[in-house]
Amino acid sequence: MSRKLTFAYPGALDTKTGGYAYDRRVIDALEALGWQVEKRSLGHGFPDPGTTVLENADKALSALPDGALVIVDGLAFGVLDRWAERDGERLKIVALVHHPLALETGLTQQQIAQFHEAEKRALRHARHVVVTSPATACTLCEDYAVSRERITIAVPGIDPVEQSDCSQQDLHHILSVGSLTRRKGHDVLVSALKAVEDLQWTATIVGSHKLDPVTADALEGQVRDMGLSDRITITGEVEDTAPYFARAGLFALASHYEGYGMVFAEALAYGLPVVGCRAGAVTDVVPEETGILVPPNDVAAFADALRVMLKDQAQARKKAAAAHVAGRKLPDWPETGRRISIALEALQ
């Protein structure tokens, strides 16, 4: 049995986002299981690439030989519906869906409709679909006409972490990790922090400016205009988030939607209580006993949750202990790779 596959992705594989981190770790795990993985970039600009980029991506994938096994990251796959329709019978196409493109924050109704229809058409021609959460699996079954039999749920793995040295933790320091894009809701977090300005706290927001410079600039302006520059640090992209998790006492991220939410899992692994939103798969990742989840885009509710965590240290410590327990139950990356490998073998 051949164990060769092409892994196609948009842009640069070393991009610092959860989706790209998932791709990198899955490739490593599959290679460790004996798969020969050809990594192929489809160009930049997805999911809204220029005509030339889209045409070149189509040509690159169409050049694969008959019967080839190819995984295509959903950020690109969702708009490659014409290629999928044309080559779906000739190739063994596996779609990797982190979350449906139409659920990105800030889209117009026209964009939502276009992304939904294109991705639905593309998924019709995938032999199999890998998703990163039960919530995304349900969405694809209910809204994209993908049968459950064609879906493998392979939640992201987590690397083992050393138990935090409590002496190094600042129980009043809040950490948020996520690209500075609209979907991550950092503006909601900053407004909520302004509402609890009377309490003792500092905050660090770790995330790349590159994906949405306009939103990143607006966030920095919001912090400055609200007079919080001395209490909120925006680091930009960092090479290693581990030191930030190790020092924090609370994790807070106001995402409008998550296909999984790898940083929430990482927070649990470090034993951090969580304040987040009941959005997408966040409820799959964050057990009730480990944090407080509120409706998306609700500044007042998010501020109330922060206030509870910051004022009631006994409850915060109880939730931190529960987070440690939940974190130890999370799968590792080899397990994620094994789940995907089993699905790929079934297509051979």
UniProtKB/TrEMBL annotation:
GO molecular function, a single term: glycosyltransferase activity
Superkingdom of origin: Bacteria
Keyword RNA-binding: no
Pfam families given in the database record: Glyco_trans_1_4, Glyco_transf_4
Domain Glycosyltransferase subfamily 4-like N-terminal, first and last residues per copy: 70-160
Keywords: Transferase
InterPro entries: Glyco_trans_4-like_N
PANTHER family: GLYCOSYLTRANSFERASE
Protein name: Glycosyl transferase family 4
Biological classification of the source: Bacteria, Pseudomonadati, Pseudomonadota, Alphaproteobacteria, Hyphomicrobiales
